[in-house]
Amino acid sequence: MIIPPPFSPELQNHLMGRHLLALEIPFSQELIAGHLKNGYVSETCGVQSESGLFNCVRCGNKDQASFYTFPCKMCNRDCTYCRSCIMMGRVSECAKLYKWTGPGVQFEVPDNVMSWEGTLSAGQQNASDCVVEAIHGKSEFLVWAVCGAGKTEVLFAAIGAALHSGKRICLATPRTDVVLELSPRLKKAFPAIEVTTLHGGSADRHGFSPLTVSTTHQLFRFIEAFDVIIVDEVDAFPYSIDDSLHYAVNKSKKFSAATIYLTATPTKRMQRLYRSGKLKAVIIPARYHRQPIPVPEMKWSGNWQKLFLQKKIPPVINGWVTERLRQNIPFLLFFPSIQVMEQVIPLFQRLSPELSIVHSQHPDRRERVLALRNGMVPGLLTTTILERGVTIERLEVAVIGAEHEVFSESALVQIAGRVGRSFANPAGTITFFHYGKSKAMVKTVHHIQMMNEDAKKRGLLDE
User: Fold this and answer.
1) Per-residue pLDDT tens over the stretch 20-64
2) In this structure, are residues 432 and 419 in contact, taking their beta carbons and an 8 Å threshold?
């Protein structure tokens, strides 16, 4: 009987399902070399070339303009690296990517792995059963659910079933804000297991667990890791336009993995695949509280850009904000750009000095959203960074310049979906202030009305 050579469980846990550079592996080169020799670890060049054309193994980049050749001191020759994923550490022709090829890891999963004891609505329960079936069948499946339908709760039974089957699961989403919203909910629902949270700067970036919540960007560091991958907000920027993120998702899952997509606003391609029968799906047209989604009101605000330049707030917008301040109703004001928002914040602070701004580049955006959620500030001015992943009690929303091209149908549906998300406050107003209606605005109203009508026909709304 041949006894296999020993291996390091610590290195196994660090590399299992990952594709990492040497500088990302906190173990000695001697240890790695020994595991390479014994077949527990494999290595591959990070950038490869064929017929003079370069390809990045980590991010899938094949755009030749995104590669750069330089005199390399590591290999003492001209070497080419990928500029597309340089922020994750330089991958070049001489830089190796390492992965674990030795024995797998079995997770200890208790019988009562899920502690969530809530009740699903009829629409949620149907979707939950479909997701469980899709995971058992290792298939590709779309959950098309309106904002506030309770998509996360729909996943709980499927995640529990997958864990009991010894599967490793990843819930990925394009935005860090959504990861930070989802992670504590999953940790609360599955307290008996470790849940790893991955985003830029996260503390447990090298954690190894049966359930991972991650931004899609972090999946570049994984390879054949997950038996189930769930992509939430699949239509969100940048995932919706970045092929490299699709590559990351596909690289991170095993060949036989189940893939579940979640969204309130499927891309046109997904809708075509669904209607042609090539992508199986379930639609949840109603929220879990069985009340209709508030339909946006369109209000003409005049030439809002000109008035802002004149240091004036359009009267109809001024009145909207003043009324919410008077009634102590928390609100979000969405603007088409950071530039416009920073230009007008002094005007709105005349109405309330506590008003502030939030955007993707703001260092305190999480703290400011938390302050609004906790009732410490009356409202926030924001860009589309808060169009999803934000749930605040009694929230009302207005879009300034809703006709602007940045406000696509998808963005407007998501923004409208911030309103009326709870049992206690299922109503609320969403207002599109404009200087001329856009097609996206009209389609958004039609989209929400159609979902409400479908929910009513299916008996998913209370009279």
Assistant:
1) 999 999 999 999 999 999 999 999 999 999 998 999 999 999 999
2) no
Which run of H or E residues covers position 445? Answer: helix 439-457
Do residues 21 and 106 touch, judged by C-beta distance below 8 A?
no
What CA–CA distance (Å, rounded) separates 184 from 461?
29
Closest CA to 96 of 67, 58, 66: 58
The helix (H) or strand (E) run that includes residue 373 is helix 365-373
Structure tokens that stand for 19 in this block: 């594709």
- Round to whole Å and give the CA distance between 417 and 413: 6
Residue 404 pLDDT > 70, yes or no? Answer: yes
Q: Which residues contact 32 (CB under 8 A, 6 or more apart)?
A: 11, 22, 25, 41, 98
The residue count of the chain comes to 463
Token readout for 344 is 């007008």
Q: Please give the pLDDT value at position 462.
A: 86
Q: What's the whole-number average pLDDT of the chain? A: 93
DSSP state of 201: T
Q: Quick check: bond before 238 cis, omega within 30?
A: yes
Query: Span 8-19, mean pLDDT?
Result: 94
Residue indicated by tokens 């846990």: 13
**Alpha helices for 165-281 (secondary structure H):** 176-189, 243-252, 268-275
pTM confidence score: 0.89
- What phi and psi values does residue 82 have, to the nearest 5 degrees? -90, 125
Q: From CA 223, how far away is CA 369, in angstroms rounded?
A: 34
Tell me, rounded to whole angstroms, the distance of Cα 244 from its chain centroid.
Answer: 15
